[in-house]
Design brief:
The complex is a heterodimer of chains A (117) and B (115). By secondary structure, chain A is mostly beta strands. Chain A is 0% helix and 47% strand. Chain A is built from no helices and eleven strands. In chain A, strands 2, 4, 5, 6, 9, 10 and 11 form a seven-stranded mixed β-sheet that branches. In chain B, a hairpin with a 5-residue loop joins strand 7 and strand 8. In chain B, strands 2, 5, 6, 10, 11 and 12 form a six-stranded mixed β-sheet that branches. Chain B has a four-stranded antiparallel β-sheet with strand order 3-9-8-7, with no helix packed on it. Classes of the chains: A mainly beta (117), B mainly beta (115). At the A-B interface, strand 4, strand 5 and strand 9 of A face strand 6 and strand 11 of B.
């Protein structure tokens, strides 16, 4: 597709369940980011991939959060044993790799809204 | 570490009035600055960006922002508000020294436009 695609758009999970959120970036975009956006807040950085390599996972809030991008395109964010505080919108963004030029634009998907009951 | 503050979590303006959304940044090195807009149930979309080429930056939909180093500010303005401008606006920053675009977002300002 032309833009970043995320699925599912909405997910309701019972506390303790595992969830998987998928991101399909723009074709050819090397960089892929995951952000967490709580209600009424700005997006918070979770993790960054350059192709299949996860270069920064400093924002992952706990070891229950795991992200992968095995073939350098589609990425999955997995949350194990979900807690109520995990309820948020999870945003995926992709961009071209920054070279010697100034930073470019992040292209965002519409997000996956996770509600943990 | 760099950070972004946005004064005013909610701003209301009348249709046709000036829009002013405030952003201040904290960074020990020259930053790159951005404004993103988020419409309901949608992802974020880039409005404009400052990358040191010019201090006054023009973006889409008639918005512009001015980088003022002495005030560490990057306020967003639009001369005349339109109903379609109602959305959430995020100021963001990234550092020149990072090898990738790790963008740090502010808390956001919700803009309402009154007919």
């Amino acid at each position: 597709g032309a833009g970043v695609s995320q699925s599912p758009r909405y997910k309701v999970a019972k506390r303790g369940q595992d969830v998987a959120l998928r991101c399909d970036p723009i074709s050819g975009h090397v960089s892929l980011f995951w952000y967490q956006q709580a209600l009424g807040q700005g997006p918070e950085f979770l993790t960054y991939f350059q192709n299949e390599a996860q270069l920064d996972k400093s924002g992952l809030p706990s070891d229950r959060f795991f992200a992968e991008r095995p073939e350098g395109s589609v990425s999955t964010l997995k949350i194990q044993r979900t807690q109520q505080e995990d309820s948020a919108v999870y945003l995926c963004a992709s961009s071209v790799l920054r070279g010697l030029s100034p930073p470019g634009e992040l292209f965002f998907g519409e997000g996956s809204r996770l509600t943990v009951l | 570490a760099q950070s972004v503050t946005q004064l005013g979590s909610h701003v209301s303006v009348s249709e046709g009035a000036l829009v002013l959304l405030r952003c201040n940044y904290s960074s020990s090195v020259p930053p790159y600055l951005f404004w993103y807009v988020q419409y309901p149930n949608q992802g974020l979309q880039l409005l404009l960006k400052y990358t040191s080429a010019a201090t006054l930056v023009k973006g889409i939909n008639g918005f512009e922002a001015e980088f003022k180093k002495s005030e560490t500010s990057f306020h967003l303005t639009k001369p005349s508000a339109h109903m379609s401008d109602a959305a959430e606006y995020f100021c963001a920053v990234t550092l020149e020294k990072t090898s990738y675009d790790k963008v740090i977002f502010g808390p956001g300002t919700s803009l309402s436009v009154i007919p």
